[in-house]
């Protein structure tokens, strides 16, 4: 018999990254496929990450456990600039001057 414990969906952990302020980012699909066929501006767009909307972020929060929601600190983290969101009033850490 199974336990009644929540488990994280492995596909969410693999495909998405949770930022410290609660947002989720992902890459665009097809970013490594048939690059010889795609124009330069499309390849540049595919290299970038996109934020998911609020409904998707709520759903992703339900699909992972508390372990994956904790902030992680890595050396030379490429996502370090995106972990703060000072321009938005609800996620601001420092007070307005």
Automatic annotation (TrEMBL):
Gene Ontology molecular-function annotations: structural constituent of ribosome
UniProt-listed Gene3D superfamilies: 4.10.410.60
The UniProt record lists the keyword Coiled coil: no
Keywords: Mitochondrion, Ribonucleoprotein, Ribosomal protein, Transit peptide
Superkingdom: Eukaryota
GO cellular component: mitochondrion; ribonucleoprotein complex; ribosome
A Pfam short name: Ribosomal_L35p
Subcellular location: Mitochondrion
GO terms (BP aspect): translation
Keyword Protein biosynthesis assigned: no
Family: Belongs to the bacterial ribosomal protein bL35 family.
Protein name: 50S ribosomal protein L35
């Amino acid at each position: 018999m199974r336990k009644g414990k929540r488990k994280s969906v492995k596909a969410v952990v693999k495909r998405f990254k949770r930022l410290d302020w609660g947002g989720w980012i992902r890459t665009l699909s097809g970013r490594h496929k048939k690059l010889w066929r795609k124009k330069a501006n499309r390849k540049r767009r595919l290299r970038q990450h996109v934020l998911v909307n609020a409904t998707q972020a709520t759903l992703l929060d339900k699909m992972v456990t508390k372990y994956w929601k904790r902030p992680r600190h890595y050396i030379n983290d490429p996502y370090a600039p995106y972990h703060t969101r000072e321009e938005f009033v609800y996620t601001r850490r420092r007070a307005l001057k």
